[in-house]
Design a protein that fits this description.
Nucleotidyltransferase, domain 5, 8 helices, 13 strands, 31% helix, 309 residues, globular
Length: 309
């Protein structure tokens, strides 16, 4: 069961699911012809409690194809993602070596953790040793997710994480050939990704979500300034540590037009709102809110990793 964590998929179509405390997003994608955009055949967001299995069953019954494999995305609150130095061990020993390296860095006992890892690109001249990301999720949470999906009658193939799900979307952007930044804001938390040619160079958690931006108790201008500062630091890190050309554009989801204008001015690079209509063949029309809530599920349905570490 737990081998599904960071597993690989099969077939030319896939279902993506993202469950949070606010609701449930479901997307279904089939591969396009060579050189064509993939086809988004189904996408819907349902407001529901996280443990509302009835909502999951309704979402399942609405799918055009109920036989496709399923990728479920864990919310960031369900796992820790840590940047660590890669142990100098054989590949089949990586997880065990990393397990002991991070045991004091997580807020639950290491015996209760499911661990997986993925490598980072090598840094430029004079950089530190090879780094990797380690992901630690509570075993109970992973088992619960497997049970929820299985009870709904879906064929669960992979349990993934938000950062890799959103990486799949960034890979579809034309700027991915040179390098692209993607700033995604969920309701309470977000992620900032730097991706080039499908490779994730950097992933950072953002403690500002759309709920905090909309809260009158906070200064929206100052919050966007902090987003700009975090993004600028990440862009500079990408250029200096990896000896890469500057990233020309930042795509966002969860910001208003005036936020994007401010971010553009603060960063000095092009900032654009992410539009799924430009990335997929689809007749589906989504509101800005539904698109944002569905993006993790859409990214999960795009997963095509064929190798696990």
């Amino acid at each position: 069961m737990l081998s599904r964590f960071f597993g690989s998929k099969g077939g030319n179509g896939q279902t993506g699911i993202h469950r949070t405390t606010e609701g449930l997003a479901v997307a279904q994608i089939v591969a396009g012809k060579l050189g064509a955009h993939p086809t988004l055949v189904h996408c819907a967001y349902h407001e529901a409690d996280a443990d509302d299995d009835a909502a999951l069953h309704r979402a399942f019954r609405s799918l055009p194809n109920r036989k496709l494999s399923t990728v479920s995305v864990l919310p960031p609150s369900a796992y820790n993602m840590l940047l660590v130095e890669a142990p100098d061990v054989a590949e089949d020993e990586l997880r065990a070596a990393v397990r002991w390296r991070i045991k004091d860095l997580i807020d639950f006992h290491i015996d209760d953790a499911v661990i997986d890892v993925f490598q980072m690109p090598k840094q430029g001249r004079g950089g530190p040793n090879q780094m990797m990301y380690a992901v630690a999720a509570r075993t109970e949470g992973v088992r619960s997710e497997v049970q929820h999906i299985s009870d709904a009658g879906l064929s669960l193939d992979v349990i993934d994480i938000l950062e890799l799900s959103m990486r799949n979307i960034a890979t579809l952007l034309e700027e991915d050939a040179r390098g692209v930044a993607l700033l995604y804001l969920g309701t309470r938390i977000g992620v900032l990704l730097l991706v080039r040619q499908g490779v994730l160079y950097l992933a950072r958690r953002i403690e500002t979500g759309t709920e905090k931006l909309s809260d009158s108790a906070h200064s929206r201008t100052e919050l966007v300034e902090s987003l700009a500062l975090e993004t600028r630091r990440s862009l500079d890190y990408f250029e200096s540590h990896y000896e890469q050309n500057s990233i020309p554009v930042v795509y966002t989801s969860g910001l208003e037009s005036w936020d994007i204008d401010q971010l553009t001015q603060d960063l000095g690079v092009s900032v654009r709102n992410l539009e799924i209509a430009a990335l997929f063949e689809t007749d589906i029309e989504l509101s800005e809110f539904d698109q944002r809530m569905c993006l993790p599920a859409i990214g999960a349905a795009l997963r095509n990793d064929s190798v696990t570490l």
